[in-house]
Amino acid sequence: MAELTKDKGAKLADPVGASIDPATQELIARAQRLNIDTVFDRAVQMKPCAIGLQGICCKNCAMGPCRLPLPKGGIDGEDTRKGLCGATANTIAARNFARMVAAGAAAHSDHGRCVAEVFMSAARKETDAYKIKDVNKLLAIAPHFGVATTVEVDGAVQDRNLDEIALEVAEKALNEWGKAEGELDYLKRAPAPLYEKWSKTGVKPRNIDREIVEIMHRTHMGVDQDYKNIVKQCTRASLADGWGGSMIATDLQDVLFGTPYPLQSEANLGVLKEDHVNIIVHGHEPVLSEMIVAMSQKPEIIEYAKSKGAKGIQLGGICCTANEIFQRHGVPQAGTYLQQELAIITGACDAMVVDIQCVFQNLANVAKCFHTKLITTHPIAKMEQENVIHIEFDEHHALEDAEKIVRLAIDNFQNRGSEVMIPQYKASAIGGFSVESVQYHLGGTFRGTYYTLNDNIINGRIRGVAGVVGCNNARTRHNEAHIKVVKELIKNDVIVLTTGCNGIACAMEGLLTPESAAVHCGPGLAEVCETVGIPPVLHMGSCVDNSRLLLAATEVVKAGGLGKDICDLPLAGSAPEWMSEKAISIGHYFVSSGVYTVFGLHLPTSGAPVFHDYLSKEMEKMYGGKWDLEADPIKHAHMMIAHIDRKRKELGIDKARERVLMDMADRQALEG
Ligand code: SF4
Ligand code: MSK
């Protein structure tokens, strides 16, 4: 052990209180024994600032920071709080919220831009590493960019050359970040009434970068000082994320790496193997992890690992990289966001390869205590600590970069100390439920619609649909709210679509298996899962893949019988343990697309009650979706269920469910 990272005598987390997961508990305790601090300990040692938590601290100019605490006993009458410049609590909270939306939308969309650039290189055939893998998906998305897939020659319609289509799609896609006129091409994929609402309220994004830049301008000292107008720009920028940057990222990743279809794998830190070279891939962009997967499967590389005394190479993912390689290759998920330090604390991680987003800087300090090589790969995401190796990844020499990284990990296998402790916990999990594969599973190849899903919602077996997504947060017990919310929903016949770290939490809990339906679901949902052979919780991918949820909801609208817009559906969204600015952008585009969305923990809006209310009541009037907040997971789930029931009633299908759920005695009484 090279170096210890913690002050002796500091207050420590209670491992059992910090996580519901036994693997996590064991490794927190191990870290404490080894005197290595983790996020769990730091969370008990440093309390959050109560004013920042409520969104009412402004540091947008050097006359501040101006802090506007709520008066004791709340606001009675006029709210007279103001900063030095006169900015009200509503303005300050709205500006802070808007900057979170901007950062979140920027993160997703810059990821999307990077994928679009790689896609352009592939279309131009400038790289051997990346090729078009899913031609059907390319042909499916081309028309949304206005790219023709057929051509008329001498009066006859012929298929267009694929290389030409790919090149044109690449140009059109990249143009979405900076086009001078018009609006984002993908907006018209939304149901027509939703598109009309966006037109009427003037929030259709013009291009992705502009909406993000405009938030930064508007929230500069002395610019936009009307919280309603700031929210309008939040809506525009978040739509540029959900129906723009994220959706393009998902689509082009599917074209390059394949649209996910169901496959089986495992989840939790128990997937690491003592006798294998263990490589953890962590972050978000699959352009890196896809190459690491390809390289680690090459026979000569496996042979090289064996020549160094290992039995093979075990890859595992953390955060959304885990979701990406899980859904396309069945690579095991090593853990959620809060388990990143713990993966190194097993002592069995030979290399941790990171790219962008959700990566703790403290990984470098933890890696110093073990033999682990920590490798950063992205030009925009480096670490200052000198034990971190930077191998910059570039699509033009991607395979060479991947080979260098994998060989580095293999060479490091023999440096492992004797301090290996891999907790023996892992669960089986099925992932790969893209919009297309759900269509196939529920509608069959020929029908290819969401008809069966709609039918089961209408007849009441499925009460409704929930999108449960998002991060972990060390301010709450790891995975507890995720699992309680999801279990309560499926117990009440609500099918769950999951992404992000919620997806990993559900995988670790065994909820991504068809068998879990019989154990955890209400009778209606259990029957559907058993008949169709699907889990009650469908893993739809990573954070950018929340765009899949928007398109799945759109498919449900199209399949008919459940209204004309996303806001008509018995559907609700949730992020029980959110922490990232990306979650705020996702939440806001869900709401602006008509989804009732509940966040756990807290929202950075509570210090400005008028602004907070606006996000709920006024957003609902405009788009049919609204923000809500509930920290208690059971109440949180029941708020979603109450919304679903309200929608069922509005659709006139509430009685159908009562009939389905009648027990035998009720039926006999009726028949008699
Ligand atoms: Fe204070 Fe206004 Fe400056 Fe914000 S912009 S720090 S409220 S003076
Ligand atoms: S990784 S954004 S902690 S879901 Fe996408 Fe998990 Fe949240 Fe990062």
What do you see in this structure?
The protein is of the alpha/beta class. The strands form five sheets. The chain has a six-stranded parallel β-sheet with strand order 8-7-6-9-10-11. The mean pLDDT is about 95. About 55% of the residues are buried. It is built from 28 helices and 18 strands. The protein has three domains: about 90-255, Substrate Binding Domain Of Dnak, Chain:A, Domain 2 (Up-down Bundle); about 270-415, 3-Layer(aba) Sandwich (Rossmann fold), CATH 3.40.50.2030; about 430-670, Rossmann fold (3-Layer(aba) Sandwich), CATH 3.40.50. It is about 50% helix and about 10% strand. The structure holds iron/sulfur cluster and Broken Fe4S4 cluster. Broken Fe4S4 cluster (MSK) binds near residues 543 and 580. Broken Fe4S4 cluster binds next to helix 13 and helix 20.
Radius of gyration: 25 Å
What portion of residues belong to β-strands? 5-15%
What is the overall shape?
globular
Oligomeric organization of the protein chains:
single chain
Number of strands: 18
Residue share in helices?
40-55%
Number of domains: 3
Give the overall average pLDDT. 94
Main β-sheet, spatial strand arrangement = 8-7-6-9-10-11
Q: Kindly, what is the distance between the CA atoms of the first and last residues, rounded to a whole number of angstroms? A: 76 Å
How would you briefly describe this protein structure?
This protein has 672 residues and is an alpha/beta fold. The strands form 5 sheets. It has a 6-stranded parallel sheet. A 6-stranded parallel sheet has the order 15-14-13-16-17-18, sandwiched between helices. Residues 284, 319-320, 337, 357-358, 470-471, 500-501, 542-543, 580, 582 line the site of Broken Fe4S4 cluster.
